[in-house]
Write the structure tokens for this entry.
Amino acid sequence: MSWTCVHTGRTGEPMARDMLSKPLLWGVGTVRTLRAHWVLNELGIDYETQPVKPRTDTMERADFLAVNPDKKVPVLQHGDLTLVESSAIMIYLAETYADRAPGLDPSRQNTKGAGFRMDVVHLNRTGCGLSLYHPQASGS
């Protein structure tokens, strides 16, 4: 499966990831960090958390500044990948772990994955919640 950057139109092949490495999510205490935690839990992914809270001294920790000098959460690290922005993290997780919930994979245009992508666009524009489609639960 190849990827396309929404902002630049650049395409490419996915980078090899150490899928045995446990994802590390930096950030707690905001709606945007909750989104990433929620998708990780929804997909049943075993992950680690660094409890960095916005506008606190935890954002000044040297280990966090090395990951994101812009001092923004959430940040997801997985293998050699570091991702910021909750919507980018959610799309990455849905595509990477598509086998765990195929209905969440936004690359599957013939499924509700396309709807997931549109929900993310709406989410970013409005800050409102995200609805996830589960084919197993709906009988589809």
In short: The beta strands are 3-4, 11-12, 24-26, 48-50, 75-78, 81-84. The longest strand covers residues 75-78. DSSP finds five helices and six strands in the chain.
